[in-house]
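Chapter review. Work through the record for IclR family transcriptional regulator before attempting the end-of-chapter questions.
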Amino acid sequence: MADGDGVRSVHRALDLLERFDDEHPSWTLAALTTASGLPKTTVLRLVTTLEQRGLVAAIGPGKYAIGPGFLRWSRLSSATMEIPPAVRAAMGRLATETGETANLYIRVGRTRVCLAQAQGTLSIRHAIAVGSSMPLWSGAASKVLLTDPPVLSVDPSVIEEIALEAPRPPGFAKRLRAAATDADARGFAISHGERELGASGVAAPIRRPDGRVVAAIAIGGPTTRFSDDRLPTYINAVRRCAATINTTNWSGFSAT
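Structure tokens for IclR family transcriptional regulator:
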């Protein structure tokens, strides 16, 4: 097998694994073939290999779920990406002060991943599972993560590639870059109904001493609570939380 074919097979296998999520904890081969758009023989070959390595497991005739092989990696990841108590404490204070759920996001490729969460005190909350992956073309946290200097100032292709994945009209890359530039200048970002109708958010960057953005701290909730008279309070609270986390010298995790 040529190197190019090998790399393509790896990408295809990872694409199949990424289709397993909270909404799709299991897949039949037929459904996975349809969703991936790959030939049935290719899906069967990849799934068979993944099953042999313990990364997927058969849970019924032609039906598969994530396998036990991930347990070891999950343990290693949890140990490596442990959130310091001081950071969690700051998030808890933010959630208590605003009543809204506080989330900590990092950038992973062209997505953002929820790394930690502090539940809000209000009965109607913004529900996002820790570990969830979301696109970088929408949301306050995404705008903040895109202010990382290598993304915003060095390599313009990153934002262009992210914009291509968005269900938006031509020219969206320019608007996305403008939103990130504005967030960089103001030190925070706001979003209303960008990823989900009726949901709003406020986010601020977590930076290393060298200026790199390693994470975004954000609160989210129903748009009705993110009114013009309440937004200044939310913005100040989020920015104070970000400043507090910055004083902990938490260096975050590398994002590529």
